[in-house]
Design goal:
Blueprint lengths: L1 H26 L1 H4 L6 H9 L20 E4 L2 E3 L2 H10 L7 E5 L5 H8 L3 E6 L2 H13 L5 E5 L12 E6 L8 H5 L1 E11 L12 E8 L5 E9 L8 H8 L5
Parallel strand pairs: 3-4, 3-6, 4-5, 6-7
Antiparallel strand pairs: 1-2, 7-8, 8-9
Helix pairs in contact: 1-3, 1-4, 3-5
Bound molecules: S-adenosyl-L-homocysteine.
Amino acid sequence: MAEERKTAERAKERAEMLRLIDAEVAETAHWLGKDKLDPRVREALARTPRHAFVPRMEEAYAYENQPLPIGLGQTISQPYIVAIMTDQANIGPGSRVLEVGTGSGYQAAVLAELGCEVWSIETVPELAEAAAKRLKELGYGKVHCRRGDGAKGWPEAAPFDAILVTAAATAIPPALIDQLKHGGRMIIPLGPPDGAIRFTSTQDLLRIEKAGDGSVTKQVVLPVAFVPLITPPEDAAREENGGED
Ligand code: SAH
């Protein structure tokens, strides 16, 4: 009975979170080029239990429209950001999506709730392991996880309908452009690492489209503040040696 009450309470909290996201989408319509989310994206957000993706001590804040710490210096993105990244990718049931930066696994779960098959890469071993376990326990069988440098993509599963990069890159990784389908889209924050002042926007969220003829166009969606994309030391050393595995 107590469990049922909790479930109903959380559904209510998610509905309130969606109200806040809708308001922010409307406020930023001039950036986004639209004032409403795809209803399927909204429904996916309404179904995804964000409280299961945050540390226990943050659970009470799980449905506030803000990023939260998940340990090891990383964060779970703000729900509004997850909403617009998913929306701007223009995907739906059956889409094949690559996510760079699994973090807590929340964004991957939202994509799975939308009906996508997801390949998600995380560089921090502890986070990669915890997210893979969590997603499995929650029944997200359509999410494939691995530890590695997401800038190299997941060539065996390519090409992808969409690629979502959830950490800020200083340059667009060429491997990710290669792994995008013709007609596909990549959503990626580009710019210098977030400075000393937290939550100031230092990067541009870009929508990169690969046309049918393979040509690539870029458009700024929004100013954003993401944690930086890290080049794992062992991968950097390997690159310097000019070698593969
Ligand atoms: N999408 C996540 C939030 C990600 S925060 C969520 O829904 O919770 C960004 C994540 O990117 C962090 O966990 C960070 O460790 C990871 N990351 C940074 N550089 C990376 C790289 N080169 N490859 C894969 N993951 C990376």
